[in-house]
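Entry 0007
Protein: Ferritin
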Amino acid sequence: MLSKNLEKALNDQINFEYYSAYTYLAMSAYAEEMDFPGAANFFKVQAQEELDHARIIYNYVFQKGGRVELEAIKKPRVSYDNILDVFEEGLKHEQMVTKRIYNLADIALDEKEHATMSFLRWFIDEQVEEEESFSNLVKKIKRASDSLANMYMIDDELATRTYVPSIKASEQA
Ligand code: FEO
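Output (structure tokens):
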């Protein structure tokens, strides 16, 4: 059983994960428009992963006998200064997600809600990878930004990212 407070916080996170998907899809559209098809692919895959995160929390709320209440999804930012700006914003976005997941974990800890603390462990670990991935890409793009040839090489690398569904242990049965 979830407390009303935790149920609300988990619902807010479902919404934020959908907003994240929307944000990354908008970044994909920008990259497409700027003629970086690899970056567009990278962000499209990122958006798919965010939908997985939303679904995982959605399923968990029901597993715990809670109620899911979907809210409107905020309009994402749709224009950027350049491709580096997009990745920098992606990094900032993931840092914000980490803060939100930590906040959820703090609530679960305060309430001694051990099942939710355990559930959130996967998200905490996932955020380490998310931040690392964006941080590495920001560094790479900064180094390459004075050479269009290098930028296109990075774009080719980004084109190879493929979507692998995120599955938590609880969903594997
Ligand atoms: Fe759902 Fe990228 O965090």
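Curator remark: The chain has a mean pLDDT of 96. Residues 17, 20, 50, 53, 94, 97, 130 surround MU-OXO-diiron (CB under 6 Å).
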